[in-house]
Amino acid sequence: MKAMAYASYGGLDKLEQLELPRPKVGPGSVLIRVKAAGVNPVDWKVMGGYLDAIMDVTFPVIPGWDVAGVVEAVGFDTPEFKVGDEVYAYGRRDSVHFGSFAEYMVLPASTVAHKPAALSWEEAAALPLTGGTAQRALDALDLKPGQTLLIHNGSGGVGQTAIQLAVVAGVRVLATGSEKNHEILAALGAEPVTYGEGVVERVRALAPEGVDAVADFHGGALEATLAVLKESGSHASIADGSVMGHGGHFIWVRPDGKELDRLGALVNDGKLKINVVSTYPMQEAAAAFGESMAGHAGGKIVLTEFTN
After folding, report:
1. Percent of the chain residues topping a pLDDT of 90
2. Is CB count within 10 Å lower at the N or C end of the chain?
3. What is the dihedral of CA 223, 228, 234, 236, to 10 degrees?
4. What is the mean pLDDT of residues 37-52?
5. DSSP state of 117
6. Angle between helices 128-141 and 257-268 in degrees, nearest 10
7. Three-state DSSP class for 162?
8. Alpha helices per DSSP H over 169-213
9. Distance in angstroms (rounded) separating the CA atoms of residues 25 and 72
10. Other beta carbons within 10 Å of 172
């Protein structure tokens, strides 16, 4: 099969198109013919070697943990799916080797879910990691209707999903972002707050008694978080493990098809939208990584099928 892969850690120049063996389909697993693959910052961070201390790697590595596609084959004892089903998944494995930047990907059936009919292939591939992360963070914060949540980096992929999930739950949302993204934040149901110097004062002006919870989807925000959080409040971060030393939750999403079904139900009910801002054919994965590294996408970047 065609795949984008790298044979050693490094930068964008390490990513190349290769012909690699199609993965085998074991018991309880699903072989997916990839229609689209989501691009996330963790993909190029793994390629750069930044997660080497916590994840085993087998080279060459095919990056990509988000996938949407069609079931090509199923292993023994896999009654949940049949050939031809449209599915999507957050496909992180314990060992980094086979990812979604390829023509085929095999995953345990427990991590796969049926694709919501309301989503295009590109939208479906953009949802799993960011959606699961947002959902897990909000579950940890355990907010009640009428409470106030501050989101750091509301305009990123995780932030945009979290805003929508919180609004559906009846939570008031304040979300930081650059002024150019304030319109996006407001359209999702949040009250925009300009990030950077003075953010604490701007949040206090909107919530003088403090906020009930804070979700940090950027990092480097602990001081601001503690300055605006009520004494009884809760906080979580996906980028700063030091929050655990201050009573916070450090979030690392797990592959779980049933959790994806929760998100899919909201999508089909029209309560959750996915913002795909850029697409690239699979062979242009390096260009997609470059856009992600720039950090100004304002939504999700997705790879589609090979065109060469």
Report:
1. 98
2. C
3. -40
4. 96
5. T
6. 100
7. helix
8. 182-188, 199-206
9. 10
10. 20
Report the amino acid identity of residue 51.
L
63 in Cβ contact with 4 (< 8 Å):
yes
Does residue 281 have a cis bond before it (omega within 30 degrees)? Answer: no
Look at residue 9 and give its three-state secondary structure.
coil
Among 31, 108, 36, CA closest to 302:
36
The reported pLDDT for the residue numbered 299 is 86
- Quickly count: other Cβ atoms within 10 Å of residue 8's Cβ: 11
Reported as a single tens digit per residue, the pLDDT across 175-187 is 999 999 999 999 9
Orientation angle between helical segments 157-168 and 257-268, nearest 10 degrees: 70
For residue 41, give both structure tokens. Answer: 């910052």
Cα–Cα distance, 286 to 11 (Å, whole number) = 9
Q: Apex CA 90: angle with CA 88 and CA 93, to 5°?
A: 130
